[in-house]
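Holo model, uridine-diphosphate-N-acetylglucosamine. Inputs:
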Amino acid sequence: MDLWRIRGGARLEGDSVVQGSKNAALPILAACLLCPGRVELLRVPRLRDVDAALEILRHLGCRAEQEGDRVYIDASRLSGSVIPRSLMEKMRSSVIFMGALLARTGQASLSMPGGCRLGKRPIDLHLLALRELGARIEEAGEEILCRPALLRGAEIRLPFPSVGATENAMLAACAARGETRILGAAREPEIVSLQAFLRGLGARISGAGTDTVTVSGFRPRDSLRFRIPADRIAGATLVCACAACGGDVLLRNCDPRQFSAVLHFLNDAGCVIMQKHDRVRIKAAGRLCSIGPVVTAPYPGFPTDAQPLLMAALLRSEGESVFRETIFEDRYRQVPALQKLGAQIRVQGREARVRGVKRLRGAALEATDLRGGAAMILAGLSAEGETLVRDAGHIRRGYEDLNGSLRSLGACLMYEGEEHGIIQNSEAL
Ligand code: UD1
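Output:
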């Protein structure tokens, strides 16, 4: 169990470099299966989800190592296409290995993926896309068997722009004979980075960032070096932390356009935002004002992953802000914990109303999921007294060193957790 001990009240000042993107790195790690030789990835965040992806690659017979922020993958000796349930349930992105295995071996045997419980999270759209390409998929309860099949190009119409389904379709389409068009594709930056990676590997692929992605061939190159882009949600986390606590923070090595929907609302709430192509500065003073409605939507709309973070920033604002969650059915799981700190939030179905209070008071909380857990930390930083966040590992699935980043900005918190069997304990408060 990880433990975060937070003493609220400090303003955040200084600058911070944003970590590499989790959601870009994970599908790219799966895509390494398409390379018959060596891949070197730079700026890979050290995360539990990355560990889980490397474990899957090793299980399949690849060499997969992380040294600092570099990852080396050699998939030349791939020897299997079965991923056991114990590895599948470690994270959501394990499901992207289905498209990658189909592309490399024509078959796959796996089970339903794990990940944060934010609602039902079915994989019907992934299966629809892969079946359109000719995959022969059988489902038996939690188990999924893709029998050997030759894939052929197809027109895939996604009824909803699912990020994961788009990624799976792109990977499998690389091995298909003929052209594939994915219509209604997700437009997230992670789709663009996956396209860039696949191009580097020798795929003829275009359209990422629009709602139609076209894949028309693949001549694999036997090595590639690729840099993972910055994590837009980690960037959003730090600007929301500054908004929650007050202060003046500069984020470097990021692309603020990728979280401009978040910056836009922070600006409406009274923060001063200054951005250049790879950096953003936020100044927050006094109480924020109410905003809204904040409606989550597929990119370039407001990201559902940032909803708990922006909510945490607004708990002490003036007036009432309304959130409407349209992506996941159960994404207000942070709310009972925030209420324990004294926040006034009313949830009714997909809508949450946050009425700002003058002060929050520290309490003992339990992290419910990755971004919800991060939201509790931000709220704790803006509360009086001490907040404890106990976490069964969610936060470290997605943040490399949230404790270090916040401390370097002047926040007062301590993290105790276990990484690779080593107890990590930041200095006492
Ligand atoms: C990805 C991100 C996650 C983010 C989400 C939405 C990764 C590793 N995770 O998740 O952080 O919150 O995008 O931006 O990149 N759906 C179906 N059937 C499917 C697939 C999805 O009904 O087959 C539904 C989901 O239940 C959800 C919505 O579509 O309601 C969005 O899901 P999707 O875009 O697929 O998200 P993920 O790829 O799981």
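DSSP finds 14 helices and 24 strands in the chain. The radius of gyration is 21 Å.
Archived with the compound record.
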